Amino acid sequence: MFITTNTLLAVLVGATLLVYAPVRHARFAYEDEVYVRPAQQPLTLQTVLQPRGALTALTFRANARAHGLDPRGYHGVNLFLHLLVGLSVFALAARLLPTGYALFAAALFLLHPIQAEAVAYVAGRAELLAALGTVGTVWVLAELEVAWLFQKF
Fold first, then answer.
1. pTM of the model
2. Contact 100, 3 (CB under 8 A)
């Protein structure tokens, strides 16, 4: 029996959803309110132009518009971002490594317990967005390096 990469990725996504299923019932914790309460206010130019966290603040504002103070929406966005980063890790690793290693890298990222904080705490969204930006940047650099190597030879 031959199992395709897409099937293994679907199983990995399913396992991630299963592992993080309790987050659906989580409330805001610790400093989550510090980020969620200001997002309920109208968006200002000062919020958008702040030196750090502007993208995070914008995503919290979009969450506030869609879900108000319901924590399920915020946790759902964090879980979606976590899955997006994990699949991006797979795509990057598959570009540079054999598929089996790429699947292992994605599984390690998606299922490692250290990632629970970024998914379960709303405030962890900044780390997820930073990880997505980092993986995207490395992807672009890897593409440029591969293109440069082909042009050289």
1. 0.86
2. no
CA angle centred on 95, ends 93 and 135, rounded to 5°: 50
**How many Å from the N-terminal Cα to the C-terminal Cα in the chain?**
40
Q: Phi/psi of residue 78, each to 5°?
A: -60, -40
Mean pLDDT of the chain: 87
**Residues 84, 19: Cα–Cα separation, whole Å:** 16
What token pair was written down for 29? 């914790």
CB of 118 within 8 A of CB of 74? no
* Interval 38-68: pLDDT, tens: 777 777 777 667 766 778 888 888 888 898 8
Between helix 125-152 and helix 71-96 the angle, nearest 10°, is: 20
Q: Which two tokens stand for residue 77?
A: 């966005």
Lowest mean pLDDT among 14-28, 51-65, 74-88, 92-106: 51-65
Residue 40 CA to residue 26 CA, distance in Å, equals 20
CA-based angle 97:16:127, to the nearest 5? 75
